[in-house]
Design brief:
Elements lengths: L1 H52 L1
Length: 54
C-alpha cells in the first residue's frame, strides 16, 4: 500500500514539474511574440508615415 502511495506521489510531482517548466517556456515565448508584434506594427506605421511625407 505504501508503494502505491509513493508511486502516485511521484506521478503528481512529475506532472507538477512538467507543468511549471511548460508555463515558464510558454510565458517567455508569449513575451517574445508580443514584443516582436509591437515592433513590427511600429515599423509598418513608420514606413507608412515616411511614404505619406514623401
Amino acid at each position: 500500500m505504501v508503494a502505491t502511495l509513493i508511486s502516485g506521489m511521484s506521478v503528481a510531482l512529475y506532472t507538477t514539474l512538467v507543468g511549471a517548466v511548460l508555463y515558464v517556456w510558454l510565458t517567455v515565448n508569449h513575451r517574445i511574440l508580443t514584443s516582436g508584434s509591437i515592433n513590427l506594427i511600429g515599423a509598418i506605421i513608420e514606413l507608412g508615415e515616411a511614404r505619406e511625407r514623401a
